[in-house]
Amino acid sequence: MSQETEEQYRSIFENAVEGIYQTTVDGRYLRVNPALARIYGYASPEDLISNLTDIEGQLYVDAGKREAFAALMRGQDVVQNFEARVYRRDGSVIWIVENARCVRDQAGAIRYYEGTVQDVTERKRNEEKIRLLATVFDSVADGTLIVTSGLRVQAANPAYENITGFGDEDILGRPLTLFAPGSHERGFIEDIWRTARDSGRWQGEITSLRRSGEPFAAALSVNSVRAPGGALEHYVLTLADISQRKYQEHQIRYQASFDRLTDLPNRWLVCERLEEAIARAQRSRTKVAVAFLDLNRFKQVNDTMGHHAGDELLKLVARRLRNCTRVTDTVGRLGGDEFLIVAPDAADRNAGARLAEKVLYSMSEPFGVFNQELFCGASIGLAFFPDDGDTADQLLRNADFAMYHAKRNPEQRCVFYDATMRESTSFTLGLESDLRRAIGSDEFVLHYQPKVDATDRRIVGAEALIRWVHPTRGLVSPAEFIPLAEETGLIWDIGAWTLREACRTLAAWDERKLPIGSVSVNLSPRQFQDPRLVSLVQTVVRETGIDPSRLELELTESAMIGDIEKAVGVLCALKDTGVRLSIDDFGTGYSSLAYLKRFPIDTLKIDRSFVRDIVQSATDPAIVGTIVNLANSLGFDTIAEGVETEAQLDVLLQQRCRRIQGFLISRPLDGRSFESFVREANVPA
User: Fold this and answer.
1) CA pair distance 532, 79, nearest whole angstrom
2) If we measure between CA atoms, which residue out of 406, 419, 351 comes closest to residue 377?
3) 428, 422 contact by CB (below 8 A)
4) CA distance linking residue 414 with residue 433, whole number of Å
């Protein structure tokens, strides 16, 4: 070999990017170039040769790798693309790939190995990333699509086929079909791609399409992918089926605004529409007629034929009321057998009279209930804006007064409100006078209904319920005197007595070691809006010495309608006293999910209307489950009221609602009976 050729080979050896080596069969380096020293982390070839003297023991990470390398050499005289993990001098691990051959003497004995080494650590990392991404792509629950900048589908994961039914053979290489026909305007769709292209991402809800042609609600995310030079290469689409969630949200919104039995607007919605009608009438200088309707023989139907017959009658009444009113009128059910009709743009009081005549004529025909003909007339009270009130509350109350007069005078099936009605209602006035006297005469008592953890029937608390024992009238229903107390302002004194009595009883139970968790007390809307409330709670807790965390205040959603900011402030102030807060009858009132997350609430109380038919209903279990999921996500507890059967309890447990109260456990009990109930319930078996 000429000197020039030798110098050329030396230059290649010294300056090569790849590591070059010669090693003995037993694993010692004879010769290495600078590149190999750099790859293995040594200062020079001499440094490597001097210190890396045992290739099998010092270099290879995985046992047996050197022997596998040597076996290939013995059998084939060459090793190609041999991958291995090796230690660098500092102890770090890298991936290499080797290509080597045997150099033999004339007798065929192996003199040494020679070969090259490349550091492929970065490539292996990228391969691992790709493998992990492929695993994620195939295993995520959301449908994922990769489409070209021209919106042709390049790849789809299995979840996309599970959600939509479209397989690879249906979509790969074809134009993207994502939106249900007619579901979105063209401008909306164009804005999706424009936003994703310009800002890199679009996210929102769409109506997508299944292979069967069925549209469904979906959450869509579109991300753009660009080449290093900035050119748009692909879009990555993520699609989640949210149709079930949207349905459940719709059901909760529906329950918040409509009566489930009759499909009529409930009290909250009909009052909202009344307020809207008043606002329009103020602008157009017209009248609004409000008809308050009460069925005359409904209680008799319930008592003689049962509640199912009563429910069927209410449905038939609702249908007739819709049929005899205008499209612009609102027919709502306030509860029980009470209905309200709001007739906007009434020309005069005669228009209201004609409306009442049509309703009464419609109600005069018999109702077919369970193969029986029932006659169930109605009493109607009429009030008008602006003649009889300026607000929805005034009109509703005055129409109610007029209805009460119609009820007391059967010959007058329809009565117009006049200003003398309140004063002339001796029964109401007498009841109000008696109610004022009762506050200071020890006529009120508290009964307690147990709350239990249904998994082990352990008593976790009680709800305090007020009862009025009238000296001559006997037991007066709270449904009769609580609204009167609200109207007259006496509710503050009654509520304050209830709170003090419940806390005193709780303190006494503690002294007697009664194992009761907490006691809940109901707050009326008027109490909640009274600026003295927080101070009252603080005073009662301090005077009775109870642990405030064992007092729970229950308030209805309607108490917070109006000034939400003020409501949040009151709730936070109450929470700062250490008490627990509960929303009663959840799902039947305001149900503003937008504000619910701002309320420092501890418990959502599932209304009895969801429990009553939960065994037969197709939707009630899902609604209860949605409320439980909502509560869990917000950190709230849940409790169901009105539980009367084991079958209802089984469904509630399936929906993960463990805490209950109702006649299945116990009716409300006086203090002594409740104490006995608790002690007996906690006696070891």
Assistant:
1) 90
2) 406
3) yes
4) 28
Per-residue pLDDT band at 561 (split at 50, 70, 90): low
What are 289's strand-pairing partners? Answer: 343, 384
Q: Yes or no: say if 192 and 202 are a contact pair by the CB < 8 Å rule.
A: yes
- Buried/exposed code over 525-539 (b: 16+ C-beta within 10 A; e: otherwise): bbbbbbeebbebbbe
CA-to-CA dists, residue 417 to 383, 490, 664, angstroms: 5, 25, 44
What are the distances in angstroms from CA 619 to CA 249, 467, 473, 614?
Answer: 12, 35, 43, 8
Structure token digits, residue 503: 């806390």
SS3 content of the chain, % helix, strand, coil (to 5): 45, 25, 30
Long-range contacts of 427-433 (CB under 8 A, 24+ apart): 428/404, 428/484, 431/476, 431/480, 431/481, 431/484, 432/484, 432/488, 432/490
Report how far residue 451's alpha carbon sits from residue 520's, in angstroms, rounded to the nearest whole number: 10
How many Cβ atoms are within 10 Å of 343's Cβ, its own excluded?
24
Residues forming beta bridges with residue 462, ordered by sequence position: 450, 519
Q: In angstroms, how far is the first alpha carbon of the chain from the final one?
A: 103
pTM higher than 0.85 for the full model? no
The angle subtended at Cα 664 by Cα 663 and Cα 670, nearest 5°, is: 40
Amino acid residing at 326: R
* pLDDT tens for each residue of 315-373: 999 999 999 999 899 999 998 899 999 999 887 888 888 898 999 888 888 888 888 88
Amino acid at 157: N
Structure tokens at 185: 């305007």
Contacts of 43 (CB under 8 A, 6+ apart): 37
| 17's tokens | 């990017």
Measured between alpha carbons, how far is 289 from 274 in angstroms, rounded to an integer? 10
Q: What is the DSSP letter of 129?
A: H
Residues paired with residue 584 on neighbouring β-strands, in sequence order:
556
Peptide bond into 386 cis (omega under 30): yes
| Rounded to 5°, angle at Cα 265 from 264 and 268 | 150
Tens digits of residue pLDDT in 601-619: 899 998 888 898 899 888 8
The token pair that represents 280 in the structure block: 């329009």
* Residue 565 burial (CB count, 10 A): 9
- Distance between CA atoms of residues 58 and 126, nearest Å: 27
Print burial letters for 86-114: b (CB count within 10 Å at least 16), e (below 16).
bbeeeeeebbbbbebebeeeeeeeeebbe
Q: What is the DSSP letter of 437?
A: H
What single-letter amino acid sits at 577? Answer: T
List pLDDT tens digits, range 142-161.
888 888 988 999 888 888 88
Tens digit of each residue's pLDDT (9 = 90 or more) over 95-125 = 999 999 999 988 888 899 999 999 998 888 8
- Relative to beta strand 551-556, strand 474-476 is unpaired
Cα–Cα distance for residue pair 189/183, rounded to 1 Å: 10
Of the ranges 374-383, 405-414, 669-678, which one carries the lowest mean pLDDT score? Answer: 405-414
Q: What is the pLDDT of residue 684?
A: 42
Residue 119 CA to its chain's centroid (Å): 53
Domains and CATH numbers, the chain: 3-122 (3.30.450.20), 140-241 (3.30.450.20), 252-424 (3.30.70.270), 442-681 (3.20.20.450)
